[in-house]
């Protein structure tokens, strides 16, 4: 397998709005990030993926861009950006910027022009259609509730918005739009960005004719735009126009609904599209009928089957991304671990898994100190447009069950991971001296970075060790994957192998003691302990695993 820096890297995601406020306006900013780079250096990450920092009216916290070459006022200036990037590079940290080009803001000059008249030169930058039978052009549903179409009286037509009505979809069928995107990418690459995370990258290509979607509870219409007909052609073109000029550049596509087969095209070693994609199967297992706010309990074998499938099936042909949390997902320890009694143990266990799998691991801000989901009392405390719109539609308009929705929001809502980063135990967790744009999680007095840095047994230092070990052991990065006891409802057991060097991992996903039987062949062969979240000896025996225990061992065949 070809070696690349981005295969061996551990990437840290920053959601700038919630990371660190340097000027007391309650909103995180670029200078705040620069202030905290030594913290990231201490952790040992190789790159930062920075969520959008461009000019934006903030209908969706920057994922609605009104100027692709300008900095959001609340976040600072271009000089602040340059300084931040310089300081990252000085510390050997690369910068991956977020490219949001499935849609722009409706306040982007292209759209301001586009909506003016049917023959405006920018009309075809977006997707305009006549209504049908006095209503919307088709039955597609927006990811933020309601129809994906908005009527525009100026020209008596509708425009498509797969997200909010302030996020009109760009028309990728138009080569002029694609060339604009390539120019934007060149702009940031020439400024020194080392790569791009491509927002909803699988959604650029919509099926011709925009046919109605099959009726279902969740995202009606998705089968006509997720991994659509021309998507691979678009990425090959992007690669030819942009990536081929910058051989070190890495790209990661956000591709909801991606299958293994599709991923092999996007991120195949010989397909010249993207470096890797984010798959969504493990984070959508809980959805009932594809609806984010109707959830069920998932048993461990189902979760393992998804994780293991991606390990096995991309091996040797395409590259995985590994993540347990990001700004759209809740906190991993609240979701798959125990955010109370065994918070530290279970957070360490989960990241032992992530960091001993094939692919590039992503750590979302705050995961390294085991931040948890937030419990707000009132719907008014939530800021996320997805949450607010769901509440408006399901409760206010349709009279649904508020308690059921509130429970779902507290479990899966996006604001769980967007609460301000908890730096210390001072007011607002040291995030801001002003009033934070989103309430800080009350547990900041106990869970914060300053505390973690003082405690040698903290999740932070465990994460740091996992990163260091990954950098020093190619088997953790490139090794093949073999699973044991697939049906075991409590334990996840697997082995990685590279040229005879092996890494065997045991993970207890429960808060109870669990017996483990070591597979024949591995038993007796272990040479050393790689890492463990409990005190353990080098020898690996059949024994009782403690609650949320994780242990990984090196051995040679
Ligand atoms: C995916 C982003 O991660 C999410 O935060 C955003 O709301 C949508 N794309 C729309 O850009």
Overview of the structural elements:
- The protein is an alpha/beta fold.
- It has three domains: 8-104 and 175-373 and 443-463, Glycosidases (TIM Barrel, Alpha-Beta Barrel); 109-160, Oligo-1,6-glucosidase, domain 2, CATH 3.90.400; 480-556, Golgi alpha-mannosidase II (Immunoglobulin-like, Sandwich), CATH 2.60.40.1180.
- Helices cover 29% and strands 18% of the residues.
- The protein has 18 helices and 22 strands.
- It has helices spanning 5-8, 30-35, 37-43, 78-90, 109-114, 175-191, 231-241, 260-266, 281-284, 300-314, 332-336, 343-354, 385-397, 402-412, 415-418, 449-454, 459-472, 474-478; strands spanning 11-14, 47-50, 54-55, 67-71, 94-99, 128-129, 149-152, 157-160, 195-198, 250-254, 276-278, 287-288, 291-295, 321-322, 360-364, 480-484, 491-498, 501-508, 514-516, 526-532, 543-545, 550-556.
- The strands form six sheets. The chain has an eight-stranded parallel beta sheet with strand order 11-10-9-5-2-1-15-14. A five-stranded antiparallel beta sheet has the order 16-17-18-22-20.
- Helix 12 (343-354) runs parallel beside helix 17 (459-472).
- 50% of the residues are buried.
- The mean pLDDT is 97.
- It binds 1-deoxynojirimycin (NOJ).
- Residues 60, 63, 100, 163, 199-200, 254, 327-328 line the site of 1-deoxynojirimycin.
